[in-house]
Write a structure and sequence with these properties.
Layout (H helix, E strand, L loop, with lengths): L1 E2 L9 E4 L4 H8 L1 E3 L4 E11 L2 E6 L4 E5 L5 H8 L1 E2 L1 E2 L7 H8 L1 E4 L7
Parallel strand pairs: 2-9, 4-8
Antiparallel strand pairs: 1-7, 3-4, 4-5, 5-6
Length: 110
């Protein structure tokens, strides 16, 4: 797996690990697909315990509100294999994502 190296001069952002998963995804605006491709989120529609994500490359994902899912772990640990070439996620967003820290007891309640 490819894991982005943290940029030391970049300001670190702290988010809590146990926040609502939909709020975290809506804030970060990135989604790792099952194949390991990182997509940029254009829109997110919540429907109870599920949500539909529309990416910039016009793919649709239906996700569940689970803090322990594969995608939740991948987002917290910042794992992905490649960035979607069609979504064109900017470099600054990847650097901001790599400098974000998920902590159990410290950070913003989303």
């Amino acid at each position: 797996m490819f894991k982005m190296a943290q940029i030391s001069n970049e300001k670190k952002r702290y988010y809590r690990k146990n926040v609502d998963f939909f709020n975290l995804v809506d804030k970060i605006k990135l989604w790792p697909s099952r194949g390991g491709t990182l997509h940029g989120i254009r829109a997110m529609n919540r429907r109870g315990d599920t949500a539909e994500i529309l990416t910039h490359c016009n793919k649709r994902f239906v996700i569940n509100n689970s803090k322990h899912s594969r995608a939740a772990r991948w987002i917290r640990n910042k794992w992905f294999f490649e960035v979607c070439p069609n979504c064109k996620v900017p470099e600054w967003k990847l650097q901001k994502y790599s400098s974000t820290v998920m902590n159990q007891h410290y950070g913003v309640h989303l």
